[in-house]
Write a structure and sequence with these properties.
Glutaredoxin; 7 helices; about 40% helix; about 15% strand; alpha+beta; two-stranded antiparallel ribbon; two-stranded parallel sheet; single chain; about 140 residues
Length: about 140
């Protein structure tokens, strides 16, 4: 439900990220054909920006120190979740659905030749890495 909104916000800054010498990619945890197709078009994630299927959940296990992290049922009752949902734009809300495995928590990495420059682990559903922190990490990776 939230990943599309978060991806769209990050993708809006793709040109800035690319100008810093970083590439933007997205790792998916499952392959539901209609959902992947819907996600991989504007305004969420343009077809020119790579999407990869993480079939063995390597990225998600890395975020969890070797285990896939999942949010529990109690996460759905936290007030912050519904506040974040309320702030989503109308089009994103209309596209939101509950298809697929929705309890796995995601995150963000910025990686350079020198290693991980930034790591963000989603603690609750819909809590995304602050965009300015991602941009700052890209600057560090680029030596700027």
């Amino acid at each position: 439900m939230f990943c599309r909104s978060e991806a769209a916000k990050l993708h809006e800054r793709k040109a800035e990220i690319n100008d810093l010498g970083c590439d933007l990619v997205c790792l998916l945890k499952e392959n539901i054909a209609d959902e992947v197709e819907a996600f991989h078009r504007e305004p969420y994630w343009s077809p020119s920006t790579p999407l990869y299927l993480d079939e063995d959940m390597t990225f998600f296990r890395a975020l969890g120190g070797g285990k896939v992290r999942k949010g529990g049922l109690s996460s759905f009752f936290k007030p912050g979740l519904w506040k974040r949902y309320g702030k989503m734009d109308k089009a994103t809300k209309e596209d939101a659905n509950l298809k697929g495995e929705g309890t796995i928590l995601g995150g963000t990495y910025v990686v350079s030749k020198e290693g991980v420059q930034y790591q963000f682990k989603e603690k609750d559903f819909g809590v995304a890495a602050p965009l300015d922190e991602i941009i700052d990490a890209c600057k560090r990776a680029a030596g700027k």
